[in-house]
Every structure is written in structure tokens, then in C-alpha cells.
DNA sequence: TTTATTTCGGATAAATTTATCCTATTTATA
DNA sequence: TATAAATAGGATAAATTTATCCGAAATAAA
């Protein structure tokens, strides 16, 4: 469904959000350990999130990654997915036609668009804050 | 969402179904032209569909691919997807945890499973026959 | 039985995704 | 100002997916 890069990106963002809400910056090392992902690869993905203004980075000693408090509440899952995987997952044709077009639909168009639309809404209606809250309370988990 | 192989497999199966319903066998060449896919790669995918008893092949002169009449009506999209991509798409964890487990959920589990379940139902409730019918009547298209 | 036609299947190559490594750059602090 | 700690980013490698090529095997028909 999502690429590995996107999975790591989502989990990393959640972990950073959890820590930022407690005013703690975290390193790629700590992040990759907590979300069970390859460290250097995760660092690359973090750079993409920084460039897309989803997380903030502070270089140098005592640096690390953080998310501004108000961004934790406003950042949607859709923004993270878009930053890493683009919007093909909730815009593209399920059977790979060049464009998903009502006037030139593929065989699964009508049925597929319902699922895709539900995915899009889910991604757009889910904030980092909601997800971070469940991690904090021990209801959900980032690894294993 | 689906792999290229799976996209080609679905489109190929639909094209074969359309032709089998008119008692015409088709070759990988014809199939790949009609669904706009690489021929040799498509041939490999067809072999997988044959091994999974979703399409039938007839070797030698006047051979080609076909689908038994009653199979056109009974074959579900889910069977094709399973034969090529496996069941991870509607069973696996959206964030890549080893298993999707109610008792050890990832942060998106509750929201994701709704989407995934809808996808699963869609795939299980869609038959080759329905899809082939729309192609025949010119309502849907296999390429461009 | 030979020939033409067609799928099967192994080997290989290209492209993309995933992952690692190493150095440069930035920053706090001693 | 020197040093240590930390992210940034380029180069490269490994793994997977996508794609191509070619000969073997099967089959119908001449
Ligand atoms: S055209 Fe294929 S999903 Fe819309
Ligand atoms: S645990 Fe991630 S989707 Fe169920």
C-alpha cells in the first residue's frame, strides 16, 4: 500500500510528535531504534520531511528533530504521505491507466474510487496529534 | 496500490474473459497490445495465472489463452490479486508491523482496517464477468 | 513425419526502491 | 577559538521489481 519510505516517515513523525509534546528533541539513531527502521535510510526520509516543512531539524550539538507544537495538531497524515509517496495512491488509476478519468474509466474505476476516496478521507482526517496520543497512552505501538 | 504485475494480470484476465465469451483464444502478443503492457513480462504473468488455475492455456498451433465459461462468472478479482501480489494488501499492517494484530495495533490500525476491509470486500465481490461486460459494451477501457 | 505455431521456462538485464557509508556543515560549549 | 555533537547530502551498494531474450516443449496441420 505505502512504500517502506512512507511507512518509516509516518512512524518517525509520530515518534517525533510524541517527544516534541514533551519538549524532547530526538536523533535519527533514537528514531530508527524506536520505529525499527534502518538508521541512514530513515535519516534521508527525515530530510524529506524537513524540506516539506513537516518536521523541524536543529543542527549541531543538542540538535535533533522536533515538530512545532501547533503543527502536531494540524499536520495530517495525507501531508506526510504526499511528501514521500506523492498523491498517486489516492488520485491515480487502480489499474495504472495514465490518468483516472470518469469519461474514460478502467474496468474497476467505479468500485475502486470508493475505496480510494475512503483512503483519502482517512488520511486527510487523521492528525499526528491523534496518533501520538495513542502511542503515549500505550494503546498503540510503533514496532514489532 | 497494486504492483505493475498485478495491474497487467487483472487487465489481461479481463481481456481474455471478453474474448473467451466469444470463443476466441488470444496470444500474449495480442493481449499486451490491447492492455498496453510489455509482452514478455505479460507472458510471465499469464503463466502465473495458469499455474493458479485462473486462466487456461493451450500450447501449439491455434493455441492461446482462454478462460472456461463458468470460471468467467465465478472468478473474483481477489483471486487474481492473491495469485500475483499475495494477500498482504488486505491483511498486512498499513505501517509494516510484522503482523496486523488487534492486540498490538499500530497507530493507524483502527482507521486503516476500515479502508483495507472495504478493499477486500470490493475485490471479493467483483467478478471477471462484471468487468468484462463493461469492456464489451464500451463503458470501460483497458488502456490509455 | 516434418513444419509452423505457440506456450513454457530459464537466464539475464534494466530500472526502481531500499539501504549503507563517508564527509561536509552547523552549532553549543568548554 | 578549538572541540565535540549533531544534521545534511553525495556516492555507492544491495535488494526487489520490472522487463527482455532465447531455446525447449507441445500441438495442429500439411
Ligand atoms: S480509471 Fe482506473 S480507477 Fe479511475
Ligand atoms: S496493526 Fe497496523 S494496520 Fe493493524
Overall mean pLDDT score of chain A?
98
DSSP strand tally of chain A: 2
Oligomerization status of the protein chains = homodimer
Quickly give the structural class of chain A: mainly alpha
Q: CATH superfamily membership of chain A, which one? A: Winged helix-like DNA-binding domain superfamily/Winged helix DNA-binding domain
CATH fold description of chain A: Arc Repressor Mutant, subunit A
How many structurally independent domains of chain A?
A: 1
Helix content of chain A: 55-70%
SSE string of chain A? HHHEEHHHHH
Distance between the termini of chain A: 18 Å
Give, in spatial order, the strands making up the sheet with the most strands of chain A: 1-2
Count of helical regions of chain A: 8
Principal-axes geometry of chain A comes out as elongated
* Largest interface chains and counts: A-B, 40 and 40 residues
Q: Which architecture of chain A does the CATH hierarchy give at level 2?
A: Orthogonal Bundle
Instruction: Please identify the top-level CATH class of chain A.
Output: Mainly Alpha
Strand content of chain A: under 5%
Poorly predicted sequence stretches spanning 5 or more consecutive residues of chain A:
none
| Rg of Cα set of chain A | 17 Å
Largest sheet of chain A: 2 strands, antiparallel
Organism (chains A, B): Winogradskyella pacifica
GO molecular function, one term (chains A, B): DNA-binding transcription factor activity
Pfam family, one (chains A, B): Rrf2
Protein name (chains A, B): BadM/Rrf2 family transcriptional regulator
